[in-house]
Amino acid sequence: MTVGPRWRLLWIGLGAVAFLAMALVHADRVNTDPIRHDQDSYLAYAARLKESGFTAIGTRRQMPIYPTLQAVFYEPEASADAHFKRAKRVNIALSFGLSILLAWVLSRLLPRAEARNLALVTIFFVIAFRAPYVQAEVLVYALVFLQFLAMCRMWRRPTLAFALAVGGLSALGWLVKGTALLGLYVFLAALVVREGVRALRLGAPRVALGNLALGGVSLATFFAGVYPYAKTSKEIYGAYLYDMSTRYVMWCDSWEQYCDLNRRYGTHDMWKDNPPPEIPTMRSFLATHSIGDIVMRTLGGLGEVVGNCLISHGYALFFVLLLGFATALVVKNAELRAKVLRLRDPAWVGWLVVPYLVMHLLVLGFYGPLGAGERFSLAMFLPATYAAMRAVAPHATAAHGVSFGELRLDWAGFQSFFFVLVLVQIVVYFPPAMATFYSGG
Fold first, then answer.
1. pLDDT, tens digit, for every residue of 12-22?
2. DSSP 360
3. Residue among 190, 113, 115, 211 at smallest CA distance from 148
4. Of the residues 1, 69, 126, 281, which has the maximum number of CB atoms within 10 A of its CB?
5. Are the C-beta atoms of residues 114 and 68 closer than 8 Å to each other?
6. How far apart are alpha carbons 164 and 219 in whole angstroms?
7. Residue 239: phi, psi to the nearest 5?
């Protein structure tokens, strides 16, 4: 039965009310301590920006766009509690707007059932649980996903417009959080490898040079977008793309070690002129750790990261079900497998998506001993889930199915089951979890 426009609007309205109401409940009952998980740093940065007329220079612990947004709503005469409460509501409003944007984007790129299902999971089990926190994460998730979409589109059909989009979205994402820079690195590296193969083995050097030139446009656009901020970083910290986490934090062996260094030598912005020899850097880390140490650290960190995702706020169930069924469908059906895995096609987006996801996963594992909370790994939820749906949906038919005993399930049937399960979880799990589950870490 087709749902009419009025019923559709009614369900959308009810969903919006549930999202906003439970986000406000979570903000007032669960997220009551601004000291936890960087919220106080964002609040302080926003206050400095507003009180300085938006001229204050940050310490590069947080990037500038999100604190600037919060500073617009900062009232100097308000109390600290009032400031925190207002900032949480600003983030809820921002998250609600981004939810609408992402739902619209998904509706343009996926079939109706897949777009609806992914939008519901993302909005209610990822964004809603992050919305009541004064953190840049929800904005980062949206920008990283849009950056990912632009890169995938440029990978398939390189054009000047998408080269500019990749660079611009990468710049915007990096100015919200350094997470976006890794994606740009992977994209450019994969592009160089592909075009090298195209020129040397496929005999198309002119096409390869043209595509590499467009990659150069993306890189130049990125640097143009970040240059004013990067120029100040160079003057103060000695590097255009200076970031506290990549310069110092990630080379510590544990978060406790980093905190101990801060207690002994002051905060990281005090280390730039005469860093003590005890402060770890990439060079000192590589000099004192073997390849085996690095592998074991990464594997252990991955275990902690994955474990935290599995016990978190509901999204892991849907991701595991979707990825498991998509994998089973492809493995069981040779015709579908040939359409999904186009290994001989240089334009196959898997040649970008696989290294993109693997590299992010490895970095998350390496960083795991310092921060294995899922707020970092969730930046990959939309790219990974969308990639699985996008790979299978255009090719799966009723002829492609997986049998579970007497039950045979095809892709369309799985999407219907998935939708029902999402609705049940929204009704049964979502309200009590939002009222009790702290999800800022």
1. 888 899 999 99
2. H
3. 190
4. 126
5. no
6. 9
7. -150, 135
Q: Which two tokens stand for residue 330?
A: 């492809």
Segment 164-193, tens digit of pLDDT: 999 999 999 999 998 889 999 999 999 999
Kindly state the tokens that stand for 358.
């693997």
The distance of Cα 401 from the centroid of its chain, to the nearest Å, equals 32
* C-alpha dihedral sign at 123, 126, 129, 132: negative
Rounded Cα–Cα distance for residues 185 and 236 (Å): 24
CA 132 – CA 25 distance, rounded (Å):
9
Kindly give the interhelix angle for 350-367 and 381-392, rounded to the nearest 10 degrees.
150
Question: What are 157's two structure tokens?
Answer: 């059909």
66 with 42: CB under 8 angstroms? yes
CA 51 to chain CA mean position, Å: 31
Give the DSSP H or E segment for 407. strand 407-410
CB within 8 A of 36, min separation 6: which ones?
440, 441
Query: Is the CB of residue 411 less than 8 Å from the CB of residue 400?
Result: yes
Q: Which residues contact 227 (CB under 8 A, 6 or more apart)?
A: none
Whether the CB-CB separation of 105 and 118 falls below 8 Å is answered with no
Phi/psi at 409 (5° precision): -125, 125
SS3 assignment, position 252:
coil
* Residue type for position 142: A
HSE of 27, CA atoms in CB hemisphere, 13 A: 26
How many CB atoms are closer than 10 A to CB 189?
A: 13
Mean predicted lDDT score pLDDT of the chain: 93
Considering only CA atoms, which of 33, 24, 47 is closest in space to residue 93?
Answer: 24
| Secondary structure E strands in 278-404 | 401-404
Q: How far apart are CA 286 and CA 104, in angstroms?
A: 45
Interval 293-333: pLDDT, tens: 999 999 999 999 999 999 989 999 999 999 999 999 999 99
CA distance linking residue 262 with residue 264, whole number of Å: 5
Residue pair 140/179 in contact by the 8 Å Cβ criterion: yes
CA distance 40 to 367: 22
Find the mean pLDDT for residues 154-158.
96
Token code pair at residue 422: 């999402």
pLDDT per residue as tens digits for the range 379-412 = 999 999 999 999 999 999 998 988 888 889 999 9
What's the pTM value of the predicted model, to 2 decimals? 0.94
